[in-house]
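In this section we walk through a basic example: taking a raw amino acid sequence and producing a predicted 3D structure, encoded as discrete structure tokens. The instruction is simple. Fold the sequence below.
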Amino acid sequence: MLKIILASQSKVRKKILDEQNILNEVRPSNVDEDVVKSSLLKEKASPEIISKNLAELKANKISAKYSNNLVLGADSVIDLNGELISKPDNREEALKILRKLNGKKHYLISSVCISKNGSMVWNHTDKAILTMKKMNDDELKNYLAKISDEALYAYNVYQIEGEGRDLFSSIDGNENTIMGLPIEKIKRYLDNYK
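The resulting token sequence is shown next.
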């Protein structure tokens, strides 16, 4: 049976693969995302291009070490009117992000890349459109108080499969994409892989 390497320490991505009975082992890429994002932003790269580049970089880095294995890299970003919103480093940043998204529509972009022998062999990017409810500061702070540090720093400022669903007035897109892994497209590629 086909087995892939997941170049991510995301527990949610691992769980999605496991639920789909896709054999996998985790080998985090440890790519310094901030350095890559900073460099790409200087070149005026869009959030989508940044997401694609990071997914490919992660997959290629690990696949160069594990020849003849398929390696899955993934990256998700928030695009607010062309502005890249990254994961918060602390709770103050998380609150600032929520204030920025408050009452607005944004895109959640998830890119995936499969690499072999250090080179990309397949990639896909999917978007979901989310509109956050208009909330007052107390409501935003109460929401953050319910979220564990691990969840907050792993999933950006909302977990769509948990408390985060209540933040939105509308969600248009695939839930797995929002959780960071557009699994249907990955499965289709793996099913056709020879």
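Looking at the output, two observations stand out. The helical segments are 11-19, 33-42, 47-63, 91-101, 137-146, 149-154, 175-178, 183-192. The mean pLDDT is 92. In the next section we compare this with other chains.
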